[in-house]
Amino acid sequence: MRPFDGRRVLLVVSGGIAAYKSAYLLRLLGEAGATVDVVMTRAAERFVGPVTFEALSGRPVHTDLWERPLAHIELGRDADLAIVAPATADLLADMAAGRADGLAPATLLAASCPVLACPAMNGRMWEHPATRENVARLRERGVRLVGPAHGPLAEGEIAIGRMEEPSTILAEAGRLLETGSALSRLRVVVTAGPTRAPIDPVRYVGNRSSGRMGFALAASAWRRGADVVCIHGPVSVAVPHGPRAVPVETSAEMGEALARELETADVLVMAAAVSDYLCAEPRAAKIRKEDLDGTDLALHLVRGPDLLRGTRAARAERGTLTLGFALETGNGRENARRKLEEKGMDLVALNEAGRPDTGFEAETNRVTLIDASGAVEELPLLPKPEVADLLLDRVEARLRARADGSD
Length: 407
Prior knowledge:
CATH class of the largest domain: Alpha Beta
CATH superfamily of the largest domain: CoaB-like
Radius of gyration: 25 Å
CATH topology of the largest domain: Rossmann fold
Strand order of the largest sheet: 12-11-8-13-16-17-19-20
Number of domains: 2
CATH architecture of the largest domain: 3-Layer(aba) Sandwich
Number of helices: 14
Structural class: alpha/beta
Strand content: 15-25%
Mean pLDDT: 92
Number of strands: 21
């Protein structure tokens, strides 16, 4: 999985109760394709044994500065990224002072790769001026810190001091490894999930969109270094770490948020399933069966707003590169081409409704990409995060062509 395939990650584990989370982080890194070397402090061994990390990494765990001459130099030199998780107050102090009296600080001192530190400690230790000074010094040197988070601590207190969750650390690691993207420092707006059209305070007209495809696109754009805002409807899946989330419910709310965010957008990815029809007269109170006198309930539906069509002029004026989606059941390519032209898109991703492995609620997707020149590219059935990466690769190609003046 990009950007971890073929990359070497140095995982430094220090002596805190959060070391148990580092074992799961190691598993996630391995599943993503990274080769991971683990360095443990002596204090870390009191919380989790080296055999756990050896079993998960399939590689020897390093604990002693004197176990092999120059091991600290080789480990630091060969790594593409170093992750310190947990980063205790003690190890942060060693790093800030440039100490090398143990394998962990010596290896980090010798490392020339990016360093991601994940602090974990008691809240009062985190707030202590000495720790704050050490953290400020490390940030000045380019060390990236993620966390700590607020929540329950081992000693029963609730404060800032928890190590961030492994999934969050993995996302931050991916952003550090993914360099050279044409999306870096650009502003990307992504819409995701469904919108709801109210019938009354408890019922609505909606669709089965899960938001997975839009969230995968938002996460991929953020990992590539973009400033990402994700406008999303009501969903049950987790919003990805990184993008700024703007939750909405109705198509009108999504339209308002979209108009606001497009003012500074370089790229728009319109992956939301916006309601095509709205209830003409939504009721202010719940419709009760007893109030209908046994008759059927008839709803009068009217057309909802076309958000892509409605923003065409603003996108054209700013030069916002636009990728949209077309979910079709028949005449797919013809309908997708018409949507691309009528709504002023640069690219449209066509997928087929009604299949268990694509479209709404599925974990995978199969899309056909059509661009404004009429070129067609069929992508294979893949997990949605991989589809997102391929689609954004094509977006990046368009951005580079624009910059070269060849588009």
